[in-house]
Amino acid sequence: MAKKIGIFYGSDTGHTEEAANLMKELLGDDLADVFDVRNVEDASVLLNYDLVLLGTSTWYLGELQGDMDAFKDKLEELDLTGRTIALFGLGDQVEYSDYYVDGMGHLYHLLLKKGVKFIGAWPTEGYDFNSNLALVEGDSSKFAGLALDEDNQPDMTPERVAIWLEQVKAEAGIA
Length: 175
Hints:
Layout: E1 5-9, H1 15-27, E2 32-36, E3 51-59, E4 63-64, H2 66-76, E5 84-90, H3 102-113, E6 117-118, E7 122-123, E8 135-136, E9 139-143, E10 145-148, H4 157-172
Parallel strand pairs: 1-2, 1-3, 3-5, 5-6, 5-10
Antiparallel strand pairs: 3-4, 7-9, 8-9
Helix pairs in contact: 1-4
């Protein structure tokens, strides 16, 4: 049976939603389903997927996007031990350099405690930021997942997403 990917995101401005939909488009309908966490009543739906892509933007001074913050509380109730998860986060590395993709960092640290298997770490090269919350523990050269900046580097998003998806599929053993 083919592996399935669930893409779950929280979005206010639409940028995270656009990134999630681009991922679904590149992966194809047979491989991926996409969910706005605002409409997910029961978080256990993500247990139906072999791989979960979890995306959020960062708001204010390093906070999770509102819908993802509420969804995070639902995630805390699930047994996610051994689940394969890849994160993606959006932020503004110029205006909010001290908090760049901290929303993704909050998810990373929560899920790290829950025993998930992370894949999809992304290099920090090509970014200019000060925050370290979303960096892989013990490796400051990598984000815990894909970092996107629609405010300052929107032209780089399609290529970054395509490369990251190939990396994630390879790490997950999905052809």
